Structures are given as structure tokens and as C-alpha cells.
Amino acid sequence: MNPKYRRIVLKLSGEAMAGEQGIGIDIDTVKQIASQIKSIHEMGVETSVVIGGGNFWRGRDALTIDRATSDYMGMLGTVMNGLAFQDCLEEMGVTTRLQTAIEMKEVAEPYIRRRAIRHLEKNRVVIFSAGTGNPFFSTDTTAALRAAEIDADVILLAKKGVDGIYDSDPKFNKDAKKFDNLTYYEILSRELKIMDSTATSLCMDNEIPLIVFGIDEPNSMIDVVCGKDIGTNVK
Ligand code: UDP
């Protein structure tokens, strides 16, 4: 199969790393994702990954902790995911670099845009962790920001438990209708809860295409990179 894209940002939620238990890291699940990334990487696609942290901590959920502090805790969670993901990829023989938006140079290199691009050109998978480095943002916004910064062709938003964007939550409404194509404007005007509005606006303003797809199907990541018509296309 031939890849459709030259350079991608894959956004993985923290939940995707957690497997069935829903929290923490399930190494077998991470390995399954990593093996698909390895295949994509071997096709010659310049691959970067923005990793979430909701399997450890979500800033907005901790009502008794100062929001900014809580968000920093969330960002640290993404670094743990990044390390686990890096380890699995390297174990499979894929060269990687983990970058953090909050400096912790004993653990990983700091986020430096030009360096990230150079790594991609040198065929290394780049994992972006610690979000944007700022509280009050999300890792979806990070994906939009990094995609704009590194001039990615597309953002692939991998979702657990759902295979695209629906007009209402398919977990609660069995008549929910899935969209094949959408615009960012429609996401905002219909208040579809697929990404936060900051991330949606950033993608819209910078005209970054997005594909929302499910990762529960085996090989869905490879399929989406090869242009198979799955999930929802947003332009
Ligand atoms: N976070 C943040 N700034 C960022 C990215 C993330 O403060 O730029 C914090 C925020 O508290 C968030 C948590 O990190 O809830 C984990 O990220 P996110 O919820 O986006 O992870 P996901 O839902 O993708 O697992």
C-alpha cells in the first residue's frame, strides 16, 4: 500500500494508551499502536505523534486544585505516556526523539521546532509531549499547533470507542448519524464535541486537514495513512 501523506501529525489520546482498564498504561496496547507506527514509518511517511494524558490526569476535572497547577499535572502525565511510547518504538527498532514543551532535559530534549523538522527529515519519529507547555490548553490544540509549525499535510485524530464524528453521541443515541465529511465551521456551529474550540479554530485558520478515525479496528492507522475512506474528513 502506498501512503497518501508526506508528513503527518498523529494525535493519540491518553485513553488510547490505557487499554481496557481506562487508566494508566497498558503496554500491550501501546505495542499494538507502536507496531502500526513502525509500518507507517517504514512506508517513508515523516511521522510525528502528539500524545495526550487523560489516562493519568485531566486538569479541568480536579475541582479542588488550582486549575493552572492541575493542568501542569496533566502535562506531566503526557510525558509519562511519551516515554512509554518511545520505549516501545525503540524496542521495535524505530529511531525516535521525544520532545517536551516543558524543559526537563534529563528526560527528553526540549521542543525546538527546527530540530523537530530535522529529525523528521532524518527519518526519526518525533513524539511531542507536555502539550503546548501552557495551562488552559489541550493536547488537541497542541496537535493543531505542531501541525502548523512543522507544515504537516494532515492531522490524524485517533479516537478510542468511536470511529468518526457523529451528530450526537453514538454511545447514548443509537440513531446517531456519522459524518463522512465536515467543515471546521460546521463543527463549531453545531457544537460537535470532537475537539475543543481552540483546537478547531487553529485548524480552521491554518487550513489544516483533519481525519477523525477509530483506533479500535486493527490497522486503522495504516489504512487512514494510505487514504482508505474511513472516519470523518474535516476541511
Ligand atoms: N494540558 C495543558 N496544556 C496543554 C496540553 C495539555 O494544560 O497544552 C493538560 C490539561 O490539564 C489536560 C491534560 O494536560 O487535561 C491532558 O491532556 P488532554 O486532556 O488533552 O489529553 P487527552 O484527552 O488527549 O488524553
Could you explain how this protein is built, in words?
The protein has a nine-stranded mixed sheet with strand order 4-3-5-2-1-6-8-9-7, sandwiched between helices. The protein has a single domain (7-234), classed as 3-Layer(aba) Sandwich (Carbamate kinase), CATH 3.40.1160.10. Helix 1 crosses helix 2 and helix 4 (139-150) packs parallel to helix 6 (197-205). Helix 1 (27-42) links the parallel strand 1 (7-12) and strand 2. The radius of gyration is 17 Å and the shape is globular. It has helices at residues 27-42, 67-91, 113-121, 139-150, 184-189, 197-205, 220-225, and strands spanning 7-12, 46-51, 96-100, 109-110, 125-129, 154-159, 181-182, 210-214, 232-234. The longest helix is centred in the middle third of the chain and has 25 residues, at 67-91. The mean pLDDT is 95. With 235 residues, it is α/β, with parallel strands linked by helices.
Give the tags:
Carbamate kinase, binds uridine-5'-diphosphate, alpha/beta, 9-stranded mixed sheet, 17% strand, 235 residues
Strand content: 15-25%
How would you classify the quaternary structure? single chain
What are the secondary-structure elements, in order, as H or E? EHEHEEHEHEEHHEHE
Spans with pLDDT under 50 lasting ≥5 residues? none
CATH topology value: Carbamate kinase
What's the domain count?
A: 1
Helix count, per DSSP? 7
**Shape type:** globular
**Biggest sheet: strands side by side, in what order?**
4-3-5-2-1-6-8-9-7
Largest sheet: 9 strands, mixed
Q: What is the averaged pLDDT score? A: 95
